């Protein structure tokens, strides 16, 4: 299969290198803003060269962000080319539209690397959902936050200090808001929940509380009480619809999530028949993510069709019945609440006048 890769950054260059070792794939074109010496004349600055090339059956969009990724991906699907992307922003924001376009034009649209990076999480979630009722999903999907929290649990460091170190190591972006604010996790929650439950929920449906206000004092308290704090995405089916939210969560020391070190991810699904399945590994990085992109390409090349069920479950998110205890620190004092609904806890967080407010759900 002849393919084109758009962008040649961390993931694009990783996918290119992995493709060299894969049978039956030829990278015919790479779209980039300037020449790349080692790639020679396969590099183009003009997307039209790729769109009009009938030999190119698949476009791997590795530019990231919403624009021009959205324009490039929709044009590829409209011309019947398959699309693979690691771009969670794009997939979460244009979920319905891009799936509809793929269906209308007989193309495959796959994005395994968009949640879990190198972990075949979405692939297996989708595979399992063909024959099972997925009851819930949950997990650590942001390596930057896990690195920060894991280090804070093991060393007496403050948040600002360890965030700066994560930036130095290249684990955190210069602007870390998407990671530490929980928005990256929120997008991965949207994509995972939509695949799991056949829904089309969007980012606004998923309340999010990040880790930016956590202190060494909070962590000391958690350590003393046998808890580990992790940023988790959570979603599940309820009798009336679905719940979905992102928040720091206190898990017991024996929980699988508790022992996830450094910048790794751990993501689980619970199905009616299969029970709980967990997936662990590198959620980001050049080769893990590049591999995941090329695995999707190979699945399409092998004719594995995962196109969604055409009927959608018209389900809305309601977090009012999803309740648990919370650790809340406000105006310098902390308490453990009784069971509080997720809706109520996130309302308290958004209405607090304390800019240092911190809360974490407690998983019983
Ligand atoms: N990095 C990871 O480990 C990882 C993991 C999972 C998912 N993802 C997702 O993968 C996507 C790509 O991430 P990345 O880390 O590879 O980003 P990156 O290193 O910044 O790469 C993006 C590349 O696209 C190029 N580019 C930007 N605009 C372009 C345009 N109009 N035409 C052609 N090329 C253009 C950039 O060129 P310049 O460098 O010249 O700007 C750069 O080479 C994002 O959606 C990200 O969320 C990344």
From TrEMBL:
Native source species: Mogibacterium diversum
Gene Ontology BP terms: methionine biosynthetic process; threonine biosynthetic process
Catalytic activity from the UniProt record: L-homoserine + NADP(+) = L-aspartate 4-semialdehyde + NADPH + H(+)
Pfam families assigned to the protein according to its UniProt record, in alphabetical order: Homoserine_dh, NAD_binding_3
Name of the protein described by the UniProt record: Homoserine dehydrogenase
Family of the protein in this entry: Belongs to the homoserine dehydrogenase family.
Chain sites annotated for binding NADPH: 88
Residues reported in the UniProt entry to bind NADP(+): 7-12
